[in-house]
Design brief:
By secondary structure, the chain is α/β, with parallel strands linked by helices. It has one domain: TIM Barrel (Alpha-Beta Barrel), CATH 3.20.20.70. Helices cover about 40% and strands about 15% of the residues. The protein has 10 helices and 12 strands. The protein has an 8-stranded parallel beta barrel, surrounded by 8 helices. A two-stranded antiparallel ribbon has the order 3-4. Strands 11-12 form a two-stranded antiparallel sheet. Helix 2 packs parallel to helix 3 and helix 3 runs parallel beside helix 5.
Length: about 300
């Protein structure tokens, strides 16, 4: 039997890293779009997208800014556009849902629970900030949580999934998140084959150890049997090591400057596409075939770009 095709997701900018941390992190709409298009050309089948304020790069939920990002990507590539419903821990649920509800994309991300999401240690690594908001946002995570209550998740599943046909990248930062997903599956709010993103290495979630990845995989096997797809996200320096393990055990992979700013020890990645090309080299060495956007749509049973408002 042929090995399954591997979907590469590229998370282009996120809301964790700030402009001071890398000159290559895109935050203006035109730069996010350009790097997303380049990542798709390099082999990313799914583009996981956040928006940033064009004036200073802070995370933004503004649908108008999202439109400036989504339209040129959709015009230049057939990649699956996956809009975050996570946004930032400082945004309300209504703010986080504003853009995806307007765009009605094929995919959205969905964090599977409330959690401590500690970014504050990053503030100690830098001295001269480009913008005043950067250390303030990082430090704010010391005393706040990322909120996704069961009610919040129900709202996302109903308003985007049931009402608009979006499928989800279920982001599971710990084992309990898998049980929350199984709960929604048992209630019928999650239908079809779920696409689970194992997220390792975020402070407040499960650690970035290969044994933890295998524990997440074994737990998902018990809860979902063979009826799920999974991908692996390793935060920071753990990125390539963990996603390589994930691909070797039958999973998909996620790269991108949202998750990791580096291409190697002490070497900043110059673009998202650089990380896509790097994992492609590894997947080629493992004799694994890369999924096209059409393959990803078939594997994940997506509704297709014609059924969106992008």
């Amino acid at each position: 039997m042929a090995a399954p095709k591997v979907i590469i997701t590229c998370a282009v900018t996120g809301s964790i890293h700030t402009p001071t941390m890398s000159p290559h992190l895109p935050w203006r709409p035109e730069d996010i779009a350009a790097q997303a298009i380049e990542a798709a050309e390099a082999g990313a089948a799914i583009l996981h997208l956040h928006a940033r304020d064009p004036a200073d790069g802070r995370p933004s939920p503004d649908p108008a800014v999202f439109r400036q990002i989504l339209a040129p990507i959709a015009a230049a590539t057939d990649a699956v556009l996956n809009i975050s419903t996570g946004g930032s821990s400082l945004m309300t649920l209504d703010q986080r849902l504003a853009a995806p509800l307007q765009a009605r994309p094929e995919m959205c991300s969905l964090n599977m629970g409330s959690m401590n999401f500690g970014l504050f240690p990053l503030a100690d690594r830098y001295q001269n900030w480009q913008f005043e908001w950067e250390p303030q946002l990082l430090e704010a995570t010391r005393g706040s949580i990322f909120r996704n209550t069961f009610h919040d998740m129900e709202q996302i599943l109903e308003r985007l999934g049931r009402d608009h046909g979006a499928r989800f990248e279920f982001e599971c930062y710990d084992v309990g998140h898998l049980y929350a997903l199984a709960h929604f599956r048992d209630r019928g709010l999650v239908t079809g084959t779920p696409f689970i993103q194992f997220v390792l290495g975020v402070l407040g979630g499960i650690g970035a150890d290969p044994s933890h990845l295998m524990h997440m995989k074994h737990t998902a096997d018990r809860l979902f049997g063979q009826d799920y797809q999974f991908s692996v996200l390793g935060a920071g320096r753990h990125q390539m090591r963990l996603i390589t393990i994930g691909a070797a055990i039958g999973g998909h992979v996620r790269v991108g400057l949202e998750d990791n700013l580096y291409a190697g020890p002490g070497q900043l990645a110059r673009s998202n596409a650089e990380q896509v090309r790097r994992i492609r080299t590894i997947l080629d060495a493992l004799s694994l075939e890369i999924a096209t956007p059409a393959d990803a749509r078939q594997i994940l049973a997506l509704k297709g770009p014609a059924n969106t408002a992008i």
